[in-house]
Amino acid sequence: MLSAAPFFAETYSAARERFRALAQCLQWQTEAVPIAARGPAGEELSIDVAGNFDSNASACLVVSSGLHGVEAFFGSALQCAVMQQWIDHPDAAPGLRCVFLHALNPYGFAWLRRADAANIDLNRNFLLEHEAYRGSPPGYAELDRFLNPQWPPHHWDAFMLQAATRIARVGLPALKNAIAGGQFEFSRGLFYGGAAASQTKVILEQHFNRWLGASRSVMHIDLHSGLGKWGSHKLLCDYPLTELQRQRLADWFGADAFESNVARDGQGVAYATRGGFGQWCIASQRERDYLFAYAEFGAYNILRTIAGLRAENQAHFWGKPNHPGTLRAKARLKELLCPASPDWRRSVLEQGIALVTKAAAAVARAAA
Ligand SMILES: [Zn+2]
Fold first, then answer.
1. Separation of 54 CA from ligand 1 center, angstroms?
2. Which CATH architecture has domain 5-367?
3. What is the reported pTM?
């Protein structure tokens, strides 16, 4: 049975070191691109990239973690577990180009936040050329006061009660739409898309093409945690799928394994996201045969998770930096997005390794 414990790091720095050490064992090249912010202990922060950049393979597997900062406690663990698998079983290592992007939001990872140093939710920041960093979905302004209280945290908080009332009035889909669609007006609020391209977006604009090299067929899995059923996972696409893309996802992962949130509305996970990382990858890599999916690994109930995001955001902006209440809110958010339960951890790693292995084999076959 897989032992998950060694792969889950306690801090951003420990995760980064492990990731780089495993890459070296695989004889991959590594690069660290620093960002202009520091961690809570004054440590340097970087986006780290590892891969066999000398490969001329036309098939390429991209696995990225930590677009949502603190979710990298899970994403980094899975990347490390996959790398360990390929170290232990060299025959299973795929004959393709691999690009592993570690901690796309290192600030959020280090500070136990979902957003980056400018409070940007990076999965709302990757706007396309014709899109403006402006606006918010109908109903968001009303939600802002409720989601983003502008005072220090108190012991007693009526959030769950208010949430229940609000949901009874507007319905969960409407609330989800307003929240998940992102907003570009409340710079200290949740799901803020930013006023301009984030540091992460600028870094990817500079380097991503070089990391992909000459590859023609790319399968990109972007790792997330927190939404969905406890210990299970789902693939999500936020761009209009072509028939070929839809067919491939179904053939490679199973017809029930993925959802596209573009063409549907009202029910389930249907919402229109602006500034999604996947949309940007697809739009900026048109000369390659590019397939992108978010792999979302479920944990706690969505209302609890939103309550945890809200409490951490409130503590981060309005609480005192090292106050026990602030640290507690951050630790709780980490638990919500990367539960300490050994069963959860083992289950998500086993599923994740199987998913990445399947993706690697499939894209290698497709490019052959
Ligand atoms: Zn996420």
1. 31
2. 3-Layer(aba) Sandwich (3.40)
3. 0.94
